[in-house]
């Protein structure tokens, strides 16, 4: 049995609401900069799916986290990876991963789009192995430590604090008693926001804060100490991601656990944070690491008694399903992220929806990733190539 075909689908989907809040009406440009987060964002939901087919007719689906210019991922897979993959055994994923990583390693492409593209292929290969062997991915990873995966609601995309409190309360009433606030607007404002959410949800709720890399060590330490009496579960992305020494200093000063990792893609990038004791909770994203590398990262974390809370933002069906399988198979899982608006869009491209209820993801049933892609709907959302 050999790999015979690789198809890429860079997608651009118009949502009802822009990710992290805002209107999705027509604009001159899809891409815009959010000063509070420093990054470029799309007003559309963008991602890149990959479909790998064998000469026996087995199919595996993968996805890269590609919130902007997903056609770059498609070009890399089509022109760099497909020649390496065609004619190879779909079961040789580790060998193929090494070859894809080495393909541009000497040129310095050890992170970024090259590794994102590798992640998409890796997820597809795991799905494919599951289809061939008639086993779910979590079983191939060694089994499930849990029958369902605990999660927290990520972000409260409302324009003001009273509306965010009301939304948090509605989620709590649906059985979701953990929420993460997308803030980082200043120490005083963040404290006020967390205090209001705590008063709304009560003492038993779990509350986390994503600071979006907006603080200095001194500011983040002040914030962590002020929030400690409010029972915050973790402080995510407090400093610029390159500042390993700053994170080490902050962790020594902070009474709150420090979480980070959505910007990192390999165990080599996580290693200095771990060894320098600069982090408490690792947040690798399967759409940037792939399943294989995320398991390596989680194993490394386990040797240092650290927990893993996989990041999950705008990834659709394959990313979400892969995240659930990995989370089920991790002995050191903290919680998994849940993005309700993105989850709804993901389910629109699936023949059978994924399920997240009462604060838990249900394990997908079936072989491989346990999802069935509606390829007709996927093809209807494919963007034109611009590379």
TrEMBL record:
PROSITE patterns: MR_MLE_1. Residues 162-257 form the Mandelate racemase/muconate lactonizing enzyme C-terminal domain. Keywords: Lyase. Pfam families: MR_MLE_C, MR_MLE_N. It comes from the Bacteria. This is Mandelate racemase/muconate lactonizing enzyme family protein. The lineage of its organism: Bacteria, Pseudomonadati, Pseudomonadota, Gammaproteobacteria, Enterobacterales.
